[in-house]
Design brief:
Elements lengths: L8 E2 L3 H8 L22 H11 L14 E6 L1 E6 L2 H10 L8 H11 L8 H11 L5 H6 L1 H17 L4 E3 H17 L8 H19 L13 H5 L1 H21 L7 H7 L11 H32 L1 H15 L13 H13 L6 E4 L4 E3 L2 E3 L4 E4 L1 H4 L41 H18 E5 L6 E5 L1 E5 L3 E6 L1
Parallel strand pairs: 1-2, 3-8
Antiparallel strand pairs: 2-3, 4-12, 5-8, 6-7, 9-12, 10-11
Bound molecules: protoporphyrin IX containing FE.
The site of protoporphyrin IX containing FE (HEM) has 23 residues, from helix 13 and helix 17.
Length: 476
């Protein structure tokens, strides 16, 4: 963005600026995939509360897809930042001033403890150093057979629904949960996949929806029943996980080393410290929570987009069939599936599962020339960043070929995995899994939209397709 574009807009002026400054788009009218109706007028406290309850993304003013920064006060002061240089400042250059917001911790800590995802400072650093080698390229590639097997099973389940509409979201959640539970607790024995899955789903569904109101400063008396309701399920899940870890410590694992083995063997390269059972458990549960639903969302939105753009789907199918024939994809195929990878990249742009990150400023600072005070909430609305009119050509269109030549011109215009030291540790794992499963499915089936059953993007901690992703499936 040029300096002239970095103007500071009070939120109240949003409507006026939108009509005055909206760039003229060069597109001939063309249908666009589903999107969130962003707010076109200031919402006020009660409007914000009701929109936030419906869909936290509706709190983002439409002007956020044109402006570099927006600030306001809804209970407490907040800034929404869409300017790449400022995002780099928050995520990398001045990262210690912007730890994850208190609300992120309130939501996640009961489920995943003080693990990698929520810890700060030294507590975070040693866990990150210990876990980083676990996600090395070599280790992630070695886990690919689990992904190939899950792709094969997903294809068999979907084949049974051929000729009818299938809820691809449910199928993808099943597939990615199989992957993550097989690579975390691969012995399976005593690890009740279904009950762990249910505990996590319940927790997320109940807690996150209410707690996200904290971001916009809902008063402390707003009840948060989810936390109380799911406490028992969470405790049970932790007991089950602890049992698996103890067994592994005493009996070892005769099979292929999984994430638990790698983390058990891992130690902080600086201090030699190893993880205790509760630390291992919280981190493995973190991988399960952070890893399966995000990847399932990527896959289900990708299938929706392929159904939305049949010509892209045909080209992707041709690519997948040429590489795979009738077998499922493996790690070795990923490099030969560039269009499938571009579809995944573009899906993560249009429907970033982590559509909204937030931080709490520690010390006074300036962002895009605007004063930030200690305690201010700094919101990184990745959804709006990825659809920003200054940063992207035809931002709401589905066009995987925009990733053809290279990454986006500005690295900080595209942040599906965050950036800086807190960048997603599982990004390569997720991308490999998404390409393997998507290629396998597209090679075998044609996916079509079902009239009247379009998914609606709603953010409940992650950007989910409300109502599921129902697609007609026919053998290719
Ligand atoms: C498409 C799938 C995924 C997406 C879009 C995604 C997105 C993200 C984002 C945006 C962050 C940074 C959050 C922030 O800065 O506030 C993050 C962090 C993290 N992710 Fe992922 N993630 C995905 C898959 C995974 C997988 C598969 C795993 C593990 C198996 C994983 C584990 C983590 C962990 C542990 C962190 C915290 C890292 C730290 O703070 O040091 N994620 N993820």
């Amino acid at each position: 963005m040029t300096e002239a574009q970095i103007r500071l807009y009070p939120v109240q002026q949003a409507e006026k600026i939108m009509t005055e400054q909206r760039p003229i788009t060069r597109e001939t009218p063309q249908a666009e995939p589903v999107k969130v109706p962003l707010a076109t007028r200031p919402l006020g406290v009660f409007g914000s509360l009701s929109a936030g309850r419906r869909n936290i993304l509706e709190l983002i003013p439409e002007i956020a897809t044109h402006a570099p920064i927006l600030s306001g006060r809804t209970g407490k002061r907040w800034h929404m930042v869409m300017e790449p240089e400022a995002l780099r400042h928050i995520l990398r250059d001045n990262v210690t001033n912007y730890p994850k917001s208190v609300v992120t911790k309130l939501i996640l800590e009961p489920a995943i403890g003080d693990s990698l995802f929520v810890a700060e400072g030294q507590d975070w650093l040693w866990q990150r150093r210990t876990a980083a080698p676990v996600f090395s390229h070599r280790n992630v590639a070695a886990l690919a057979p689990v992904m190939t097997a899950a792709a094969e099973r997903a294809a068999s389940r979907i084949a049974k629904g051929a000729g009818r509409a299938v809820n691809c979201y449910d199928e993808m959640v099943t597939a990615t949960f199989e992957v993550i539970s097989d690579v975390t607790f691969s012995d399976g024995e005593g690890f009740d996949r279904a009950s762990v899955h249910r505990a996590i789903e319940d927790y997320m569904a109940q807690t996150a929806r209410v707690s996200l109101l904290d971001i916009i400063g809902a008063p402390a008396w707003v009840p948060r029943p989810g936390r109380l309701l799911s406490g028992a399920a969470m405790r049970q899940m932790k007991r089950v996980a602890d049992g698996s870890i103890q067994r592994r410590r005493s009996e070892g694992n005769p099979g292929v080393p999984d994430l638990l083995d790698l983390l058990l063997a891992g130690e902080d390269p600086k201090t030699g410290r190893k993880m205790t059972t509760p630390e291992l458990r919280d981190n493995l549960l973190t991988f399960i929570v952070a890893g399966h639903e995000t990847t399932a969302l990527t896959l289900s939105w990708a299938l929706y987009l392929c159904a939305f753009a049949p010509e892209v789907q045909s080209a992707a199918r041709a690519e997948a069939q040429a590489v795979l024939g009738d077998r499922a994809a493996t790690a070795g195929d990923v490099a030969a599936l560039p269009l499938i990878r571009r579809i995944v990249d573009e899906t993560l742009r249009l429907y970033p599962p982590a559509a909204f990150l937030s931080r709490t400023a520690q010390a006074a600072d300036r962002l895009c020339g605007r004063e930030v005070q200690p305690g201010d909430t700094v919101i990184l609305p990745i959804y709006a960043l990825h659809r920003h009119h200054v940063l992207w050509d035809r931002p709401d269109s589905f066009d995987p070929d925009r990733f053809l030549d290279s990454r986006p011109a500005d690295r900080y215009a595209y942040l599906p995995f965050g950036d800086g030291p807190r960048i997603c540790i599982g990004a390569n794992f997720a991308l490999q899994e998404a390409v393997i499963i998507l290629a396998t499915l597209l090679a075998r089936f044609r996916f079509d939209l079902v009239p009247g059953k379009l998914p609606q993007p709603v953010m409940i901690l992650t950007l989910r397709p409300q109502g599921g992703v129902w697609l007609g499936v026919t053998p290719a």
